[in-house]
Amino acid sequence: MNIQQVALITYQNTGSFSGISDEENDNLFRYLTEKGLPVSYQIWDDPAVDWSQFDLVLLKSPWDYFDKIDAFYAWLDKLEQLNCQVLNPVKTVRWNADKRYLKDVQERGLKIVPTVWLEKGQTFDATEAFDILGTEKIILKPSVSGGAKNTFALTREDAAASAASINALLQEEAFLVQPFVEEIKTKGEWSFLFFNGEYSHTILKTAKPGDFRVQHFFGGTIHTPEPPAALLETAHNIVDNFASDCLYARVDGVEINGELYLMELELIEPFLFMAMSEGSLERYYQAVMDHLQVPAL
């Protein structure tokens, strides 16, 4: 196969996200280029791009897709119509863009954080949500979101006071409600990274004191411990079931009573923490070449 053009997908940076993602992108871009791949950065919603010219479209950081979800779905449709090879695959990306995919994970017998689903147009009943989840603090977030967008941590009192504004948001989009998991504050959030279904490395993210958000751009810190075998086995099982055809996958979860409960299966634009694991750039590259079904250059 003669590879002519490879698009490394990014977004129009308006300063909304940390430059740490740009650093990872640049390191990956240099590595792939040095390996001989004809890579170029392309902004996913740039109307001037002729997508038909690309042999491969690599979704790396379309970080604003959830703010422009209809346009993002239309772009995926276009790539599909052009028969572009996209990694991760369009069908999987479309499924993963809405957190209601967690229902599918749960139906497969895998554990997710307990969830109350609020469809667009429904009314948020704070008392009912707290009683169902058996908690004194909840996390409420849109079913299509990222980067803690429109994510709220609420006590019963907070939820009652915020009900009107939450119901206004529910007129625009679906939400999900989950219990605040204390283990995120006490133990952190695990991220397991896979390339082509094979385990690569593990990250443990912890929130800064007084916060619940573990993302690095909210002050969270990153560690690289050896993961407990049981947690890694569950993460691998999730990937085997739902991301076996994916170039990359990040399984985010929390340990509760020795078991991994899935919080997010990130298959669109996850930060891959490649700087935290020696050899991860090479593993990513090898995974790309395996998908292209050509020998590594």
- In terms of DSSP E residues, the strand content is 15-25%
Helical content class: 25-40%
Largest sheet: 5 strands, antiparallel
Q: At the first level of CATH, what is the class of the largest domain?
A: Alpha Beta
Query: How far is it from the N-terminal to the C-terminal residue, by CA?
Result: 12 Å
Low-confidence stretches: none
Largest sheet, order of strands side by side? 11-10-9-12-13
Q: Shape from CA axes?
A: globular
Mean pLDDT: 91
Which fold does the CATH topology of the largest domain refer to? Rossmann fold
CATH architecture of the largest domain: 3-Layer(aba) Sandwich
Q: Over all CA atoms, what is the radius of gyration?
A: 19 Å
Number of domains: 3
What is the tally of beta strands?
13
Question: Which features characterize this protein?
Answer:
33% helix; alpha+beta; D-amino Acid Aminotransferase, Chain A, domain 1; single chain; 13 strands; Rossmann fold; 24% strand; five-stranded antiparallel beta sheet; four-stranded parallel beta sheet; Dna Ligase, domain 1; 297 residues
Structural notes for this entry:
With 297 residues, this protein is an alpha+beta fold. It has 3 domains: 6-96 and 281-292, Rossmann fold, CATH 3.40.50; 101-111 and 183-267, ATP-grasp fold, B domain (D-amino Acid Aminotransferase, Chain A, domain 1); 116-180, ATP-grasp fold, A domain (Dna Ligase, domain 1), CATH 3.30.1490.20. Helix content is 33%, strand content 24%. A 5-stranded antiparallel beta sheet has the order 11-10-9-12-13. A 4-stranded parallel beta sheet has the order 2-1-3-4, covered by helices on one side. Strand 9 (189-195) and strand 10 (198-206) form a beta hairpin. The longest helix is centred in the first third of the chain and has 15 residues, at 20-34. The model has no long low-confidence stretch (mean pLDDT 91).
